[in-house]
Task: inverse folding
């Protein structure tokens, strides 16, 4: 097959179970991708620290997108040359698409007075509250709060208040993104912009041949990159409808929920490419 095969996946609610963050049901599909040497790229709202830990646990050594498209991390030496847009950060080449996290603090401090009891942002809430809000353990909650670019928040207010939040963030040069569990404030980027940049690098480093990819997600914040893949896999959620896509071709819906639906969809995609029993 004269194409670069690639799988790009959201994590929470997709590869990882929404309630307990397990990926047990997806293990056979993960192993099959590894055997076929098809890169699995994580495209997530999670932080660098969270994704690095998960990659080590799973044995994933591929690039990844953090904080809803705020930055792309490429392991040093993964491509023949470091992309010129990148900076060296430890053992990674990083391409940043968003301003740093500190940009959003004065905006939220002002809104806290204007919209009392309407939201809790991770930075102000602290690690103990992040642990309670996410259901993560203490160390995992601390990693979830080690954000470089974005600020997640739990929203308790009205639709009118949300519009005020969006307007204030836009005035500061950012956007409000709705995920499966939290809203997130970040720069004017998204998972689609970050993933398209990375996909282009895969093509360039393989002689310019086309990329045949499967993009996987379950939430509204996944739509920008779900629209870009040759194929898209929607993961059903128990508490909300499937995200709405403009595209109609190449779209699958996984059977069941979370990692079980993930494994089902990846399996069907692979069967369309190979003769796999």
Result:
């Amino acid at each position: 097959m004269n194409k670069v095969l690639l799988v790009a996946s959201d994590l929470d609610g997709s590869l990882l179970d929404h309630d307990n963050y397990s990926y047990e049901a997806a293990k056979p599909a993960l192993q099959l991708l590894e055997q076929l040497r098809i890169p699995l790229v994580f495209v997530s709202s999670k932080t660098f620290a969270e994704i690095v830990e998960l990659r080590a646990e799973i044995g994933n050594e591929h690039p990844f997108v953090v904080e809803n498209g705020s930055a792309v991390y490429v392991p040093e030496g993964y491509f023949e040359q470091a992309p010129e847009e990148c900076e060296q950060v430890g053992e990674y080449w990083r391409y940043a698409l968003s301003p740093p996290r500190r940009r959003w603090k004065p905006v939220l401090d002002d809104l806290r007075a204007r919209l009392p009891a309407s939201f809790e942002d991770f930075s102000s809430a602290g690690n103990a509250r992040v642990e309670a809000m996410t259901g993560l353990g203490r160390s995992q909650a601390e990693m979830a709060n080690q954000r470089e670019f974005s600020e997640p928040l739990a929203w308790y207010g009205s639709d009118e208040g949300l519009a005020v939040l969006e307007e204030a963030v836009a005035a500061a040069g950012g956007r409000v993104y709705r995920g499966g569990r939290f809203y997130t404030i970040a720069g004017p980027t998204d998972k689609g912009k970050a993933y398209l940049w990375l996909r282009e690098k895969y093509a360039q480093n393989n002689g310019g041949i086309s990329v045949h990819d499967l993009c996987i997600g379950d939430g509204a914040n996944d739509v920008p990159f779900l629209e870009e893949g040759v194929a898209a896999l929607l993961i059903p959620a128990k508490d909300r409808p499937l995200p709405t896509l403009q595209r109609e071709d190449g779209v699958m819906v996984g059977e069941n929920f979370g990692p079980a639906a993930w494994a089902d969809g990846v399996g069907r995609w692979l069967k369309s490419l190979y003769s796999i029993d």
